[in-house]
Amino acid sequence: MRTTITLDDHLLQRLKKRAAESGTSVSGLIERAVRLLLQSSAPQRRDRFDLVTFGEGGRFTTLNIDKTASLLEVDDVERFGRQR
Known about the structure:
This protein has a domain at 1-40: Arc Repressor Mutant (Orthogonal Bundle), CATH 1.10.1220. It contains 3 helices and no strands. By secondary structure, the chain is mainly α. The model has no long low-confidence stretch (mean pLDDT 83).
């Protein structure tokens, strides 16, 4: 099955280097890492936390979190500014 993931540029470069050194693909390396993670013993327990919100009702964010492209665009605009 194919899927899309977003990785930090530095992390991707390290993955590419490791994949080349081990004679496999980046996809193969990621798949192996995920399998190892899922095979590990008991899942990590996370402490409970309370989400603090203000105001009454309404949406937590104005962004459409179902549209990855729009989230990436907002991130790019925040990071690099809007082109004229």
